[in-house]
Design a protein that fits this description.
Largest sheet: 6 strands, mixed
Number of strands: 6
Radius of gyration: 15 Å
Number of helices: 5
Oligomer: single chain
Helix content: 25-40%
């Protein structure tokens, strides 16, 4: 049986209601927000300190704009839960994790053991991203 929420964090999941970006920006005490593909994650930068959860919607597996949203938020210092939701496929988990996602809410449930295997598929990487792993070229040069 598959999981509808795969979480790779040690803290408790946020119970705050998830608001649309427009509703979140109109509120001064919201702690959870959902970003749609056409929305700019940079609108959240002044509010990172109060956000416990950012859901990034993937309405179709081929829409990769959510990867950019994740990188923007992580590179700007967001440390809360970053959840990919929607049409999230097993073969995307590794790449999503590299961009900073630490939770997944796929429409079609994914087995936890299959997800763990998919995330561990490529232990060595070529690009520097936000997950902390050094790329192969840096390791070769002692960087």
């Amino acid at each position: 049986m598959g999981e509808t929420l795969l979480r790779y964090r040690n803290d408790a999941a946020s119970g705050a209601p998830v608001l649309s970006l427009a509703d979140f920006l109109a509120s001064d005490n919201a702690a959870a927000v959902r970003i749609e593909p056409a929305e700019d994650a940079r609108a959240l930068l002044p509010h990172l300190g109060r956000i416990a959860l950012v859901e990034v919607n993937f309405p179709a597996y081929g829409d990769g704009r959510g990867y950019s949203s994740a990188r923007i938020l992580r590179e700007e210092g967001y440390t809360g839960e970053l959840r990919a939701c929607g049409d999230v496929l097993l073969d995307q988990l590794s790449h999503m994790k590299r961009c900073g996602f630490d939770a997944f809410a796929p429409v079609k449930p994914i087995a936890a053991d299959a997800a763990a295997k998919a995330i561990a598929t490529w232990p060595e990487v070529y690009q520097k991203t936000v997950d902390g792993r050094s790329p192969i070229w840096a390791l070769r040069h002692g960087l």
